[in-house]
Amino acid sequence: MVEWLLVPLAYLTGSVSSAIIVCKMMGLADPRENGSGNPGATNVMRIGGKKAAAITLAGDALKGLLPVLLAKALAVDSLILSFVVFAAFLGHLYPIFFGFKGGKGVATSFGVTLGVTWWLGLAVSGTWLLVYKIGKISSLAALVAATLTPLYAWLIVGDLNLVVTFVLISLILLWRHKSNIQRLLAGKES
After folding, report:
1. pLDDT recorded at residue 36
2. Nearest to 137 by CA among 93, 92, 89, 181
3. How far apart are CA 88 and CA 63, in angstroms?
4. Residue 6 vs residues 71, 75, 87, 155, 161: alpha-carbon distances, Å
5. Counting beta carbons within 10 angstroms of the beta carbon of residue 64, is it exposed (0 to 12), middle (13 to 18) or buried (19 or more)?
6. DSSP alpha helices (H): ranges in 26-159?
7. Phi-psi bin for 159: left (phi > 0), alpha (psi -120 to 50), beta?
8. Region 14-23: what's the mean pLDDT?
9. What H or E segment, with its residue span, contains residue 178?
10. Residue 17 — left, alpha, or beta (φ > 0 → left; ψ -120 to 50 → alpha)?
11. How far is CA 29 from CA 21, 59, 61, 98, 102, in A?
């Protein structure tokens, strides 16, 4: 029963906004009020450059990775692990500490895949890198990687609970990127 406490802990960890913290610590503008208004690494790059974006990206990935690694260290079953994965991801999207207005979830979703198994994280990040290298569009790379994550989870992990969780995460990522998808279809995505 105590293992279920990992779920709210994962949500609270996911709710820590790396973008807002990094921008405050580096004396940069609030990412919720500048650039695209999205508290994520891409917007932080617009506001503060590559170093700030890299720190934000690492923070967002870690807040997905650490709760999953803790759950695995405690040898929870796959159902609880699936809830931990989803809670960390949802924490980033709807952070309790920041008025439930969070980022799009790409880096945090990468962190949870990495926590489930390094192979899954490598498959997802390898897909992102390949698509980005070919197309030079970060959102397109994220969308392709997100779309393929459930398939990779099925092939690499083979656990139905986790596959369903990654299907949900992928659908949410696609929904959160709907404006990017519209710009991609119109040929206007930078």
Report:
1. 86
2. 181
3. 7
4. 7, 12, 9, 26, 17
5. buried
6. 41-48, 50-73, 78-93, 106-116, 118-135, 138-156
7. beta
8. 95
9. helix 178-186
10. beta
11. 11, 18, 22, 16, 16
Tokens of 47: 């506001």
Q: Which two tokens stand for residue 72?
A: 């695995």
Q: What is the pLDDT of residues 129-155, one digit of tens each?
A: 999 999 998 889 999 999 999 999 999
> Mean pLDDT score of the chain, rounded to an integer?
94
Question: Could you give phi then psi for residue 154, rounded to 5 degrees?
Answer: -65, -45
Place of tokens 């398939």: 151
What does 78-95 look like in DSSP terms, one character per residue? HHHHHHHHHHHHHHHHS-
Average pLDDT (104-121) is 96
